[in-house]
Design a protein that fits this description.
The chain folds into three domains: 3-66 and 429-468, no CATH class; 69-95 and 155-266 and 373-427, Acid-sensing ion channels like domains (Acid-sensing ion channels like fold, Sandwich); 273-366, no CATH class. Helices cover 43% and strands 21% of the residues. It is built from 15 helices and 14 strands. A hairpin with a 2-residue loop joins β4 and β5. The termini are close together.
């Protein structure tokens, strides 16, 4: 077949296909015999084609922004799970046993001890506070070698300083003991497998604690007054995952709490990740020792792994790695060179930021979490009349002054302001199905394009190829 005949046959083939095409406007160009009509339909077809391409590109760009729609609902419940309340003494070491341990550390380095003086300057006071903190770090490093009974002996037993405890207008039951290498002896309310619930809001149906006297027989100086540190969190998480709340002695402190459940869309819609198939050294190691995951806990664990790598010891203010599961005994950082190593590789700001960047890759942000927002109000406790009545009717307080009582006693109330919680749910603004539907609608309404139209184009290309090689 000659080249001229081939092009003529190809022209007839394209014209025939165009007349039968399901595209809007396009067949009209070939059906209309009038020149002006052909120009009109050609202009309309080009206009709609350009508009379609613009809308298709915009649809893709909108999808690739990965915006989300946030739905916030306040859901009323018949009952709400009460959070775990972790309570720690504001003064970490308060007993004679603790004093003996501090004395040993002080004798090892006299500069650790906080010394007063009439000529102290703000900078020297700050330096002395840092030295006292170093002393506490050193003592905690030695606490690793103590058994549970010896650790309990560093602070007064909780049952001796709690005068009364009520929950839901009934008795509280037992508190579980937890030792923190940052805060010392702590006690947890509602840290059970089956947590307690409350179905009525208000102070009388939350946790009510009357505590005192908060004693301290340790002669060594501390730079905090008497009081408590408390953390409100899910029982499955570590206390440091929650915000620290400081409770003063001599006060009645009321804490109203509100529960919020957050469900974020995973990456690329937010910075959180779906952890189902995620793997990294720190993440996998952390999950082996802690069932519930939270990024903050994992990052602290990752920091500890770096210190182990560079300093060959554990820093006790970070999560302690289970010594029994290690390949070789892992000891805490004990001497000056090890503490200096920790300072260089962890406490130094630039080094810490560098490690943090690496740990953020190892420990992704979780997409689902529970938070407890709170508001706090206080009143002086006790009143003069109440104290005088107490002093006259109780031998325990007959020798107390009002100032001494206020320094060592407090009331703590923790309760829900409403039996409801806030649910925050993020969903993709445009899902993949939405994108396909939107593109299909645009292509269909302006050009009449569908899956069958795509098959028609494939058929045309196939027939053109066959015509070109003289097979048709």
């Amino acid at each position: 077949m000659s080249k001229q005949n081939k092009w003529k046959k190809l022209k007839i083939l394209v014209e025939e296909w165009s007349l039968l095409s399901t595209f809007h406007c396009y067949p009209k160009i070939f059906q209309t015999k009038n020149v002006y009509g052909k120009l009109l339909w050609t202009f309309v077809f080009i206009l709609f084609t350009c508009l379609t391409f613009w809308l298709v590109i915009k649809g893709f760009l909108d999808y690739l922004e990965f915006d989300v729609v946030t739905k916030i609902r306040v859901i009323s419940q018949q009952s709400l799970t009460f959070p775990t309340i972790t309570i720690c003494d504001a003064s970490i070491f308060t007993t004679q046993k603790a004093e003996n341990l501090l004395g040993k550390a002080k004798r090892l380095d006299e500069n650790f001890y906080l010394n007063g003086g009439k000529n102290s300057t703000p900078s020297s006071i700050r330096l002395n506070i840092n030295q006292l903190e170093n002393l506490v770090d050193f003592v905690f490093a030695n606490v690793v070698f103590l058994n549970d009974e010896e650790k309990r002996g560093l602070g007064f037993p909780f049952e001796k300083i709690i005068q009364d405890c009520m929950f839901n207008s009934n008795g509280c039951g037992q508190f579980s003991w937890l030792f923190s290498y940052k805060w010392g002896n702590c006690y947890q309310f509602n840290a059970m497998t089956s947590p307690l619930t409350t179905n009525i809001a208000g102070r009388s149906f939350g946790l009510e604690l009357y505590m005192g006297p908060l004693e301290n027989t340790n002669k060594y100086n501390t730079f905090t007054s008497r009081g408590l540190r408390i953390f409100m969190h899910d029982g499955s998480f570590l206390p440091p995952s929650a915000k620290e709340i400081l409770i003063e002695s001599g006060k009645q402190t009321n804490i109203e709490i509100k529960k919020t459940l957050t469900y974020k869309s995973p990456s690329p819609h937010s910075q959180c990740q779906d952890l189902t198939d995620f793997k990294s050294n720190s993440f996998d190691s952390f999950k082996r020792v802690q069932a519930s995951y939270r990024q903050r806990d994992c990052i602290d664990f990752c920091f500890q792994m770096f210190i182990l790598k560079y300093c060959q010891c554990m820093y006790t203010l970070l999560p302690i790695i289970n010594i029994s599961t290690a390949k070789s005994p892992i000891l805490p950082c004990l001497n000056a060179s090890q503490f200096q190593c920790v300072d260089v590789h962890f406490l130094n700001l630039m080094a810490r930021n560098k490690i943090a960047d690496e740990c953020l890759l190892e420990c992704p942000l979780e997409c689902e979490y529970t938070t407890y927002d709170w508001s706090m109000s206080t009143l002086d406790y006790p009143s003069v009349q109440f104290f005088n009545s107490l002093k006259n009717n109780s031998k325990l307080y007959s020798n107390f002054t009002l100032a001494e009582y206020k320094e060592s006693h407090l009331i703590l109330n923790v309760y829900y302001s409403n039996v409801e919680y806030t649910e925050i749910v993020e969903t993709p603004k445009i899902s993949l199905l939405d994108l396909i539907a939107n593109l299909g609608g645009v292509l269909g309404i302006f050009l009449g394009f569908s899956i069958f139209s795509l098959l028609e184009i494939v058929e045309l290309i196939f027939r053109v190829i066959l015509c070109y090689i003289d097979k048709l």
